[in-house]
Amino acid sequence: MHFSTLIAAFLVPATALAANIIVKVGNNGTLTYDPPSVTAVNGDVISFQFLSKNHTLTQSTFATPCQNISANGLDSGFQFVPPNATTISQYSFTMTNVSGPLWFYCRQANHCQQGMVFAVNPTAQKTFAAFQANAMASGNATTTSGSATVSTAAATGTSSPSSTPAANAASALKMGASSAMLLSGVGLLVGLVL
Ligand SMILES: *[C@@H]1O[C@H](CO)[C@@H](O)[C@H](O)[C@H]1NC(C)=O
Ligand SMILES: *[C@@H]1O[C@H](CO)[C@@H](O)[C@H](O)[C@H]1NC(C)=O
Ligand SMILES: *[C@@H]1O[C@H](CO)[C@@H](O)[C@H](O)[C@H]1NC(C)=O
Ligand SMILES: *[C@@H]1O[C@H](CO)[C@@H](O)[C@H](O)[C@H]1NC(C)=O
Ligand SMILES: *[C@@H]1O[C@H](CO)[C@@H](O)[C@H](O)[C@H]1NC(C)=O
Ligand SMILES: *[C@@H]1O[C@H](CO)[C@@H](O)[C@H](O)[C@H]1NC(C)=O
Ligand SMILES: [Cu+2]
């Protein structure tokens, strides 16, 4: 067998499997992740580029979209971006031994209740749209309401929220939020941006 054939046999599949998925956070000052959901397989890296304001990328569950799952959940921490920033921060994690969907939100103020949520591998039963609707309904009820009951019921399809998402979180590699990218312009820190 020729050497070049061996190289092709080993390198091509490996290259095809490792995607680097870019998600823009707060693009143009919006309360969004762009795209709001992605499909990823183990080995893929998902990189979140924080472009404005002061957002997070924090892991939650389908049942409680606006609440972090545990101390072990993925969390970028607050990523403050000054107006006209010269650098932006990027937070990445690698999909490692993940099975099933992953759910995320921004834990700044009421951004989650305004629909700032993100999903990896949503399913036909647990769609991104349903997750986002749960998020937008979750913070507005003053007492126990119909919508709260519905969202709890919707969660019973999964394996226990306390074990599966936590296991997913523990096995996704945290890569930190420190790598910076250059933007044009001059940074100036101004006040509190929500
Ligand atoms: C963001 O704003 C720029 C310039 O104002 C525009 O070209 C671009 O299309 C906008 N992007 C989105 C996603 O709205
Ligand atoms: C996540 O929730 C746990 C309690 O379940 C809490 O101890 C922890 O501080 C929270 N982490 C963040 C980043 O909010
Ligand atoms: C950012 O840049 C724009 C346009 O160059 C300017 O109008 C604005 O004042 C700047 N903001 C800050 C906080 O420097
Ligand atoms: C992840 O998967 C690999 C191989 O599939 C296995 O060896 C390893 O123990 C798994 N790690 C965890 C934390 O489950
Ligand atoms: C909940 O409040 C947010 C922010 O005020 C709003 O955007 C959203 O439409 C509200 N959701 C419902 C179901 O009233
Ligand atoms: C970002 O938001 C958090 C939570 O509201 C706040 O504690 C922090 O001071 C903010 N950072 C900046 C630089 O404004
Ligand atoms: Cu936010």
Main sheet properties? 6 strands, mixed
- The rounded distance between the terminal residues' Cα atoms is 61 Å
H/E element order:
HEEEEEEEEEEHHHEE
What ligand species are in this complex? 2-acetamido-2-deoxy-beta-D-glucopyranose, copper (II) ion
Measured on Cα atoms, how large is the radius of gyration?
Answer: 19 Å
Name the structural class.
alpha+beta
Strand content: 15-25%
Mean pLDDT: 74
Count every beta strand, where a strand is a DSSP E run of 2 or more residues: 12
Counting DSSP H or I runs of 4 or more residues, the number of helices is 4
Shape descriptor: globular
Q: List the quaternary state of the chains.
A: single chain
Percentage of residues in helical conformation: 10-25%
List low-pLDDT spans: 5-14, 142-194
